[in-house]
Specification:
The protein is an all-alpha fold and 147 residues long. Helix content is 75%, strand content 0%.
Length: 147
């Protein structure tokens, strides 16, 4: 090998440096970084609320634990009431093993989890009262208010 000729490693190194310094790669890096930041912000803004589990197809622990989840509170009043109605229907037609699992879940519900369930139920009650009061105040005559 001659002294004036660069070896393959040096040539490869120069080639990689040229690519990294090119405007396209820098722009692509900025776009990727912005996408990552956007996804993180979107997840934080969504509150991490999860969708309600299927009442009749999911394990009873998942169905019951959703009552204390932020996703339950994010549902509309009608959706929360429908979820509770479905939960009652499932408990009415529950197998013995599901009944034992539900009993064990609710018996072991303490601390922050119990507080979360209570807060969600309290908030549902408040939301129902506020919604009813709002509907009452929108009534224009006494006949509507009595109905």
């Amino acid at each position: 090998m001659k002294a004036n000729q660069p070896n393959k490693a040096e040539a490869m190194s120069r080639w990689m440096n040229d690519i990294v310094k090119s405007r396209g790669v820098r722009n692509a890096g900025v776009v990727v970084a912005l996408l990552v930041v956007g996804v993180v912000v979107w997840r934080v803004m969504a509150g991490g609320a999860r969708k309600p589990p299927s009442i009749f197809d999911s394990p009873v622990e998942n169905v019951a634990s959703f009552l204390g989840d932020a996703g339950f509170k994010a549902l509309s009043i009608d959706e929360r009431m429908a979820y509770l109605k479905g939960l009652v229907e499932r408990f009415g037609s529950m197998s013995q093993s599901d009944s034992v699992a539900a009993s064990a879940f609710f018996a072991g519900l303490t601390g922050d989890a119990a507080e979360a369930v209570m807060n969600n139920m309290r908030d549902l009650g408040k939301d129902i009262l506020v919604d009813g009061a709002d509907g009452y105040l929108k009534c224009t005559d006494d006949a509507e208010r009595e109905a």
